[in-house]
């Protein structure tokens, strides 16, 4: 998108496309990719397995057919279990991203079960294994000219502020700064920018209703039900301080991609119209934010 002073990309989750079984109506790739381009977006993440072709040449052809380039892809991996080696699965996904021109392998510390509504607590052994695996994946990605970036995410092993800080302090992995998931998990993303802007390799721009996020943290509401209830909003309609985040990252010299995301669950194909409208509203708000922060 050439009328913004930052590199803005799309993600299929804004159209309700998600790896979780039963996650609402799944729109066809043609509609999602076409609407990305109609909105002026020229890059995207790849989305979940099965959404786009697995074979790199076919994936490259598909994306280029819509005038889109690849930023990276989301890879949920079990990192805390000493009996599970995440490296082989990571390398397959990372090599696919690299083959189509992507620069970031976005890692989530998966629980090992479907969905994001429950997670176990890590013990000392689990933490040691997770941090060791993060460094292994970071090194393997670096050998290929790719960055591995950990994505703190609700319902994964790295969700809450103490866990985010422990990763920053205990591993060399870079970060995918997801503004919505951080706030939903109880971490102010502005604080992460202040503390570790130099570790940020990718940004997922999200907004979130803090009151619904608080109900998820308290156990009063499941994550899935909160998303269905509209916990994630178009940019500017929630409680994330986007101007402070963008200003802080810019001051720190961040020049990477900002991936526009609004996690949503569609009830039907017709709900895709609302999803597209929400993305358009977020782009408009981002223009206003950029005009203010660059003034």
From TrEMBL:
Could you name the domain of life of the organism this protein comes from?
Answer: Bacteria
Where do the coiled-coil regions begin and end? none
MF terms in GO: isomerase activity
According to its UniProt entry, this protein's organism is Tsukamurella strandjordii
Domain Xylose isomerase-like TIM barrel as annotated: residue spans: 36-287
| Name under which the protein is recorded | Sugar phosphate isomerase/epimerase
- Output the Pfam families linked to this UniProt entry: AP_endonuc_2 (PF01261)
Q: Which UniProt keywords apply?
A: Isomerase
């Amino acid at each position: 998108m050439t009328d913004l002073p930052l590199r803005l990309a799309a993600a299929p989750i804004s159209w309700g496309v998600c790896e979780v079984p039963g996650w609402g109506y799944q729109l066809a790739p043609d509609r999602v990719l076409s609407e990305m381009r109609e909105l002026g977006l020229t890059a995207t993440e790849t989305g979940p397995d099965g959404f786009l072709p697995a074979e790199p040449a076919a994936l490259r052809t598909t994306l280029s057919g819509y005038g889109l380039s690849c930023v990276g892809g989301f890879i949920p991996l079990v990192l805390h279990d000493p009996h599970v080696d995440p490296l082989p699965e990571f390398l397959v996904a990372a090599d696919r991203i690299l083959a189509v021109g992507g620069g970031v392998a976005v890692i989530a510390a998966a629980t090992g079960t479907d969905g994001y509504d429950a997670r176990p607590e890590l013990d000392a052994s689990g933490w040691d294994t997770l941090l060791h695996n993060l460094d292994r994946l970071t090194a393997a990605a670096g050998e290929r000219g790719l960055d591995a970036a950990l994505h703190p995410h609700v319902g994964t092993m790295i969700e809450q502020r103490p866990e985010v800080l422990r990763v920053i302090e205990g591993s060399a992995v870079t970060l995918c700064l997801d503004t919505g998931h951080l706030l939903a998990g109880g971490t102010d993303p502005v604080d992460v920018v202040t503390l570790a802007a130099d570790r940020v390799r990718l940004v997922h721009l999200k907004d979130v209703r803090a009151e619904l996020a608080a109900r998820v943290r308290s156990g009063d509401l499941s994550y899935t039900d909160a998303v269905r209830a509209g916990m994630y909003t178009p940019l500017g309609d929630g409680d994330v301080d986007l101007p402070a985040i963008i200003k802080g990252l810019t001051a720190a010299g961040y020049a990477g991609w900002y991936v526009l995301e609004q996690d949503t669950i569609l009830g039907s194909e017709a709900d895709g119209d609302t999803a597209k409208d929400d993305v358009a509203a977020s782009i408009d708000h981002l223009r206003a934010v950029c005009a203010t922060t660059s003034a």
